[in-house]
Write a structure and sequence with these properties.
The complex is a heterodimer. Chain A has two helices and 17 strands. In chain A, strands 1, 3, 4, 5, 6, 8, 13, 14, 15 and 17 form a ten-stranded mixed beta sheet that branches. In chain A, strands 2-7-16-9-10-11-12 form a seven-stranded antiparallel beta sheet. Chain A starts with a helix and ends with a strand. By secondary structure, chain B is mainly β. Chain B is built from two helices and 51 strands. Chain B is elongated and about 125 Å long. The chains are: A mainly beta, B mainly beta.
Chain lengths: 280, 783
């Protein structure tokens, strides 16, 4: 299975490289079709366009907050708050999660983590967000999902689907992963996708998964770079119940390492929209 | 065409992908690529000098610091560049630094960074590395300061702020650094090349260090923008900030009719109004701006009018200035003051910004200001005056050693606050040295220090020390005392006593002459040290009260006048003379009336036969109207008749009004005073003779709470103490001190009734005077 994954990855590297070169040197040219993708059609069932007034909090009917500085199982350094200085609309159609270097509640940093837990969850479908990511060593933005049963079965049995994770010290790489029983944390099933001549944080990109009974396909800007199937995972396939959505920017932690004196603060993740579809 | 092909190949090589990308696209055309007139070779030093590369060391550096090293190289390549930083004070040079030049220039516009690997024999900080230094104009200079290195190879990326500028760049790479803690070390650089990197992002830029500055300006004033930088986020997510030259920026002025700005960031104000000067770097809007608030035509400080002969100038276009070390010492570490001096036409103006304190120093050489008497400066505060705003001027003399320190430095300081301080007017400050008593020596003036609180910005002009003309330009004022009350020694206005010797030989250096000043005969002392004045005979001044003297000296540091009686005179005592200090230097003629009582008991006033002046050090003194005078014991004229409307007055004693009926002007309170009434010029006047105290009982209690003043006219030739009280039952009484004797005739006084608190003004029933002498009173009334 590893070989297949490598194949996908390599092919995609090439594709992205081509596109990058096109866009830089030959912007007048038409793009070639470079992937033959599964044909699926979708119906939008849930979305947030984040069109609220500047400075307002995320829509409380759709999003709740995780608050505190527990480290969230990853030795993260930030204190998550529900203040508008950490999460609010920018007034021009995006929701901004801002990580700040400030002393708060015993932590040296603040940020925000919002989730649809208890408000919206769905089994299968297309889950996508258009995001401009933050950057800098120790900055860890993520767009991800957890199984609804986390409150009863706990993690990792509930399953975790990471649609987008980045390390701020490698702004040209994005990662997609699943964590489940027997393959969580450092042994998660994961794939990274790199831009050969560019970086993700300088513009918006669409990060998505398409999830069905026996597959999770990972996309960046509609390019498939990873497929995870029941055969791929090294433990039980737990992706057969509703999952809820999470958006956050962590500072520090096991995954990304510590921020350095060279890390620019504040750092903002801009989310243009989040959309969830069901397959027709 | 060959050149284009070459360039194309290089691009293919660099990207390694263009061939793949190009397949299937027909529209790509060589014409899309920018025509190049210079080679676009990316490599600077890979394993040796590439292409047209040359090296030149900076002046004063160790010219042998750079060598190609074939044993140490990055990644096992053939060679690297080795830089041997010398020890401090090495005879070969005190630092390592030089430029790697392209002899012909290269077109670097297709790249966006220079990168290289670096390591050192020890942890160190490289002073500066960069590119754009071409040993010429350095037009497109980019520098990274303070690059930390250690003994591991690390990759350094220096982004190019706007590659499109670099179509013919000769300065490919440069470095400069000194020893670490005085000791040299070695560092190596390898694989130096220009690159086109896709993962440099988040470019930002700044002018004026990112600060939005406000500046008061005038037509004709020029200011040069500085503080240029560009910041990029490197592929590692870390920001790097570079110092860049102004040529990378495009400047604009929002209102060009107010100020223009050149390609080099020189802002010139050309009209009145407000404009904001901003800049862009490529497509980046730079942080920082300069807002010019122009009042239009510059209104300069008033042009000085003093004769240059009487001026020692520190900063002025009107006079030759002394040799000044600096007008801003930038005294570390506490001074924040910057200089933004400007010139309008030929008018040079000092402008201090971000002001806390600043010093002007004069040590080459120090200057003797002993012949001057004042410091002048013109001050302009362009910002609104904020509460607590204080401007201080300190004058410092380095003392006998003529150098800072040594325990002989002296100084003093004068403060200015609102309401004197006003915004946007030239304020002329003149500080007489008499206001700087701590400036006890003046032969080695060395520093002028301005200190401020809540004043961020000021202009200064016409800073000079000055003195009045040595020779007065006008005559002494003409005396007004009636001759009958005067015994004159030297005056054109009176008959002088005869036989006075104005130039007795007492061994003095002083030369005495009499000169006409504006037609008025005046006594002149030149080369003054001390000087006597011998009257023909001892004068009995017992009936006189004052010595009057008019004096003038632009350059005296001290001056005393003495009266002298012959030793042994009855009524006097040793040393038979007494000094009175006169304030010098003078800003013009000074008139003084010295009570003769000042000279007692040493001087027997019945037998004064000499004057003496001393305190001089070669100065020039002018004297006139030296006479004794007295106040007539009886007023020669009646008190002035009051003109207040009768309806507004409650009169106690006046011919001009109906007085409160039934008042007792001489109640028996056990006093010694003799009370009479006497007509003076037909006006009934109250006289207290031999006053110790004296009451006055109103005919009825008076409510004066609706009145504002107690008015009274009083006259006394001989009183030395006099107080007036009003009294309400209790008794509640409060004194008010009257100035005596009355040297200018009747003294008409309006005393605010508030001065008598806590007397019950609605129930006043008595008055009281206490003191001594003979007192004439009239027009005692409330109004």
């Amino acid at each position: 299975m590893n070989n297949i994954n490598k194949m996908i990855k390599q092919r995609h590297f090439l594709t992205v490289s081509l596109v990058a070169v096109f866009s830089i040197f030959l912007s007048g040219c038409k793009k070639e079709a470079v992937q033959t993708l599964p044909e699926r059609s979708w119906t939008l069932v849930w979305s947030d366009e984040f069109n609220g007034a500047a400075g307002t909090s995320p829509d409380g009917s759709k999003w709740g907050f995780d608050i505190g500085n527990s480290g969230w199982g990853n030795s993260e350094l930030q204190y998550y708050t529900n203040r508008t200085s950490n999460a609010s609309m920018n007034g021009t159609g995006a929701m901004v999660i801002t990580a700040r270097a400030e002393n708060f509640g015993g932590s040296g940093f603040t940020s925000a983590r919002i989730k649809t837990q208890g408000k919206f969850s769905q089994k299968y479908g297309r889950f996508e967000a258009r995001i401009k990511t933050p950057y800098g060593p120790g900055i860890w933005p993520a767009f991800w999902m957890l199984g609804d049963n986390i409150t009863t079965d706990g993690w990792p049995l509930c399953g975790e689907i990471d649609i987008m994770e980045q390390r701020g010290q490698q702004p040209h790489i994005t990662l997609g992963s699943v964590h489940g029983p027997g393959y969580s944390g450092g042994s998660a099933i994961t794939k990274s996708y790199a831009l050969a001549n560019g970086r993700f944080d300088t513009d918006y990109h669409v990060y998505a998964i398409e999830w069905g009974p026996d597959f999770i396909d990972y996309y960046v800007d509609n390019y498939l770079y990873q497929r995870i199937t029941p055969e791929t995972v090294t433990g039980k396939w737990v992706y057969d119940r509703p999952f809820f959505l999470i958006l956050n920017v962590a500072v520090g932690g096991n995954f990304v390492g510590f921020p350095t004196t060279g890390t620019p603060f504040p750092q903002s993740m801009l989310v243009d929209y989040v959309k969830v579809y069901t397959q027709n | 065409m060959r050149q284009k092909n070459f360039m194309l190949h290089t691009l293919y090589f660099c990207t390694g992908l263009l061939l793949l990308a190009g397949a299937g696209c027909k529209k790509r055309d060589v014409a899309d690529l920018q025509p190049a007139t210079f080679p676009n070779r990316a490599e600077v030093f890979i394993d040796d000098f590439t292409g047209d590369l040359a090296y030149a060391a900076f002046g004063g550096s160790d010219v042998r610091a750079f060598q190609v090293d074939k044993t140490v190289a990055y990644g096992g390549t053939a060679a690297s560049m080795r830089f041997e930083v010398p020890d401090a004070n090495s005879p070969n040079g005190s630092y390592a630094g030089g430029v790697f030049l392209s002899k012909t220039g290269r077109n670097l516009s297709g790249y966006n960074a220079i990168s290289f690997y670096i390591k050192a024999s020890q942890p160190a900080t490289i002073g500066v590395v960069g590119f754009g230094n071409d040993f010429g104009e350095n037009k497109y200079l980019v520098s990274q300061n303070g690059l930390p290195v250690n003994s591991n190879w690390k990759k350094v990326i220096i982004p190019i702020p706007d590659p499109s500028k670099l179509t013919a760049e000769r300065g490919l790479f440069y470095y400069s650094t000194g020893p670490e803690a005085g000791r040299g070390y070695t560092f190596w650089i390898d694989e130096v090349r220009f690159e086109k990197l896709g993962d440099i992002g988040h470019g930002s830029a700044a002018i004026l260090n990112g600060v939005d500055k406000q500046q008061i300006s005038f037509t004709g004033v020029s200011t040069t923008i500085d503080g240029f930088s560009a910041t990029y986020n490197l592929p590692t997510g870390i920001n790097t900030t570079l110092n860049v030259s102004p040529a990378y920026f495009k400047f604009s002025s929002s209102v060009p009719s107010v100020a223009s700005v050149t390609d080099k960031g020189v802002v010139t104000t050309i009209g009145g109004g407000t404009t904001k000067v901003t800049a862009t770097l490529d497509t980046i809007h730079a942080r920082g701006s300069l807002t010019i608030n122009s009042s239009g035509a510059y209104v300069g400080a008033p042009t000085p009018t003093r004769d240059a002969a009487n001026v020692t100038s520190v900063f002025s276009d009107a006079y030759p200035n002394i040799n000044v070390d600096y007008y801003n010492g930038y005294w570390a570490p506490f001074q924040t003051t910057q200089s933004a001096d400007f010139t309008v036409g030929s008018d040079h103006v000092l402008n201090y910004t971000n002001f806390n304190f600043v010093g002007i120093q004069v040590t080459s050489p120090t200057v003797n200001i002993g012949s001057r008497a004042n410091l002048h400066m013109d001050l302009y505060l362009p910002d609104n005056i904020t509460p607590g705003a204080t401007f201080k001027v300190r004058v410092l003399d380095f003392g006998a050693n003529g150098a800072p320190g040594g325990g002989d430095d002296v100084s003093d300081i004068v403060s200015f606050t609102a309401p004197f301080l006003t915004a946007r007017n030239w304020l002329s400050i003149d500080i007489p040295f008499s206001s700087l008593p701590g400036l006890s020596t003046k032969a080695h003036f060395g520093q002028l220090i301005f200190e401020g609180t809540n004043i961020s910005n000021f202009f200064a002009d016409n800073i000079y020390f000055w003195s009045n003309p040595v020779v007065p330009t006008v005559a002494a004022p003409v005396p007004t005392q009636p001759a009958a009350n005067v015994l004159s020694v030297f005056s054109n206005s009176y008959t002088n006593i005869s036989g006075t010797d104005f130039f007795p030989n007492w061994g003095q250096s002083t030369v005495v002459t009499q000169v006409p000043i504006a037609g008025n005969n005046t006594l002149r002392y030149t080369n003054f040290n001390y000087q006597g004045l011998q009257m023909a005979a001892g004068q009995n001044l017992s009936t006189y009260q004052f010595l009057h003297l008019d004096y003038y000296s632009a350059n005296a540091g001290a001056l005393n006048v003495y009266l002298i009686c012959p030793p042994g005179s009855p009524g006097g005592t040793a040393p038979w003379e007494k000094a009175f200090t006169l304030n010098v230097p003078t800003a013009g003629w000074n008139s003084v009336d010295i009570p003769l009582s000042h000279f007692t008991p040493q001087v027997a006033l019945s037998n004064v036969f000499q004057f003496k002046f001393d305190g001089g050090t070669g100065s020039d003194i002018y004297l006139d109207n030296i006479y004794f005078w007295k106040i007539p014991p009886v007023p020669p004229v009646p008190a002035p008749t009051p003109t207040y409307p009768a309806a507004s007055v409650i009169s106690i004693f006046s011919d001009a009004y109906t007085n409160v009926a039934g008042s007792d002007l001489n109640p028996n309170w056990g006093q010694a005073t003799v009370v009479t009434q006497t007509p003076i010029g037909g006006n009934n006047t109250l006289v207290y003779t031999g006053l110790n105290y004296q009451g006055l009982q109103f005919g009825s209690n008076q409510n004066v709470s609706g009145k504002t003043f107690l008015h009274l006219d009083y006259y006394t030739a001989n009183s030395t103490s006099l107080k007036v009280y009003i009294i309400s039952p209790g008794p509640v009484e409060t004194p008010y001190t009257l100035t005596v004797p009355t040297t200018s005739g009747w003294n008409s006084l309006d005393i605010p009734l508030t001065a008598f608190a806590p007397v019950a003004l609605n129930n006043v029933f008595q008055m009281k005077f206490d003191g001594n002498g003979t007192i004439y009173l009239d027009n005692i009334l409330f109004r």
